[in-house]
Design a protein that fits this description.
With 205 residues, this protein is α+β, with helices and mostly antiparallel strands. The chain is built from seven helices and seven strands, in the order ααααββββαββαβα.
């Protein structure tokens, strides 16, 4: 993979950083953050997401951000620099698909963990194919209970970076809430059962 700063900190970006006094700081900070491939942290993070945001650009230059979600594990890390997911029937606007076909496949991906205030940014080259054209990949990316796979999207990651957690508001989905409060509810249920048994015993006496 490339260094995220080398890819994203263009001359115009660096000029703004220098104007703000942060250019030298980032120039010294980012060389040590280059990774050749996904490490255990990135792999685990991606495969534990239930949604991502993907930005592509149309042939007229307009950016488009698409949300893609699914059950835990819908994102599959395929090798050291590539991940993908199965695409099921949606609203059939095909904006991302059209953008990829008209351009060179460049996309930007945000993978969020709101509960832990973590964000992984990925720049890559996306490919979307019909599931019927690659049945082996379709079988690898399919998720049980989601219906018929129509398309497959894979993203070859060129650069990635962990972002600052500042201003990420913690949010929790129903599964995470259940994990947090479930043990306390179990304790309360057990205590209620004990009290009901005591009341019943007292009434019997």
């Amino acid at each position: 993979m490339e260094n995220y700063a080398d890819l994203m900190f263009t001359k115009a970006v660096r000029a703004e950083q220098d104007r703000d006094g942060t250019g030298d700081m980032y120039a010294a900070k980012y060389p040590d953050r280059t990774k050749a491939e996904f490490g255990p942290e990135e792999r685990g993070f991606l495969e534990s997401r239930t949604s991502i945001y993907i930005a592509s650009v149309s042939e007229t230059g307009w950016p488009y951000v698409q949300h893609r979600g699914g059950p835990l594990g819908f994102l599959k890390v395929l090798d050291g620099t590539r991940f993908g997911f199965a695409d099921y029937r949606g609203n059939r606007q095909y904006i991302s698909k059209g953008n990829l076909q008209a351009g060179d496949g460049r996309v930007s991906v945000f993978a969020m963990d709101y509960a832990r205030k973590a964000r992984l940014k990925l720049q890559g080259i996306a490919t979307m194919v019909e599931a019927a054209d690659d049945p082996d990949l379709a079988a690898r990316l399919a998720v049980d209970g989601q219906g018929r796979v129509e398309r497959l999207m894979t993203i070859d990651v060129v650069a990635m970076d962990w972002n600052c957690p500042q201003f990420i508001t913690p949010r929790f989905d129903t599964t995470e809430i259940a994990q947090l409060v479930g043990p306390e509810l179990d304790k309360k249920d057990a205590r209620i059962a004990e009290l009901e048994a005591e009341i019943a015993a007292l009434k019997g006496a």
